[in-house]
Amino acid sequence: MKYSNDCRRLSQLLVTYRDSISILDSSSIDPLKPYKDLLIDLYLFDSDIKEKIIELLKYQYYLNEIQQLIDWTIPNFPISGGMLALKGIKQGTNYKLILNELRQTWKKSHFKATENQLLDESLPIILKNLTTTTTTAQQKTVVNPPAFALPKKRKHKE
């Protein structure tokens, strides 16, 4: 039996996260936070990831929460590489690490941290920690896209 690439990617997502991610208790601020974090992490690699995460919620039988995720607008990460350059940070291997740490800080704030908060409050702490730790230890925290989130490869005609 043949499956489309989209069907295969959806299946891989379901198998990967069916047991490792679940709704937080209802007393938390945002019970869907783990799903929103996953959506933010994978959105860079797959613009259709929201639909796949909705399918994950269906698979886990969280039917009441599906509409909340459908109604949730994916926020834009307020920081870009150009903003780091304006802060005097030279481009290099640390750029990606710094942006990933800022993204993690933004996610911990429930996507509420502003550009100024991230650049003025969080960035100095990240830079301080970056200089005190080795680069190899930091590289382990870099998020690589899972196979199911990779974009479709297209054949180019020459």
Description:
By secondary structure, the chain is mainly α. The chain has 2 domains: 70 residues; 59 residues, no CATH class. The chain contains 8 helices and no strands. Helix 3 packs antiparallel against helix 4. The longest helix is centred in the last third of the chain and has 18 residues. The relative contact order is 0.14.
Could you list some keywords that capture this structure?
158 residues, mainly alpha, 8 helices, 56% helix, 2 domains
Beta-strand percentage range:
under 5%
Query: Total strand count, please?
Result: 0
Q: Termini separation (Å)? A: 32 Å
**Compute the gyration radius: what is it?**
18 Å
Number of domains: 2
Overall shape: globular
Count of helix runs: 8
Content-based structural category: mainly alpha
Low-pLDDT runs of 5+ residues are none
Order of helices and strands: HHHHHHHH
Short description:
The chain is mostly helical. It contains eight helices and no strands.
List the helices and strands and how they pair.
Layout: H1 5-17, H2 33-43, H3 49-59, H4 63-71, H5 81-86, H6 93-108, H7 115-132, H8 135-139
